[in-house]
Amino acid sequence: MASYETTAETALGIDEVFAYLSDFANTADWDPGVVEAEHLDDADTELGLGSRFRVVTSTAGSRQSLEYEITEWDPPHRMVLVGTTPRLRSIDTLTFAATEGGGTRVTYHADLALLGPSRVADPVLHVAFQVIGRRAAQGLREVLADG
User: Can you say how many angstroms the Cα of residue 91 is from the centroid of all Cα atoms in its chain?
Assistant: First the structure.
């Protein structure tokens, strides 16, 4: 299993940051590895437990489509999304804490696991995921700084 964790702080308020990041369709705005992202539920449906997203990533010219679902929902403090394909599972946990002065600290933890026989490539995935994670972390910090 590959893991990556980062923390970003912003002057933006916790409700605003939670609303933005909980809409996982916004990942294409800040994660350079994401080439497409969309909310799969009816447009009138509020985000929450069970909300689904399709996220398409591109790594080394290979595109991968994951369907994510919100499996834990505690606004504006925590949410967990699980993304799956037949060959891998991603668990993304976002926690939000108010900071002094009305800002927000976001901790983003991601676990990525290959499934089935592909698991033998977990060590390679771990190395690649560190690079991918650093790029996404930088994008997250930039989008939160821009407000």
Answer: 8
Give the pLDDT confidence score for residue 91 in this predicted structure.
Answer: 96
Residue ranges for the chain with pLDDT beneath 50:
none
The residue among 114, 21, 141 whose CA lies nearest residue 75 is: 21
CA distance 53 to 71: 12
Residue recorded with tokens 């539920």: 41
What is the reported pTM?
Answer: 0.86
Quick one: which of 22, 25, 110, 108 has its CA closest to 73?
22
Residue 96: which of 69, 73, 128, 116 has the closest Cα? 73
CB 121 within 8 A of CB 114: yes
| pLDDT score for 48 | 96
pLDDT of residue 61: 76
Report the candidate in 102, 94, 97, 96 with the shortest Cα–Cα distance to residue 68: 94
Tell me how far apart the alpha carbons of residues 2 and 127 are, in angstroms, rounded to a whole number. 8
Q: Which of 110, 111, 138, 129 is nearest to 31 (CA)?
A: 138
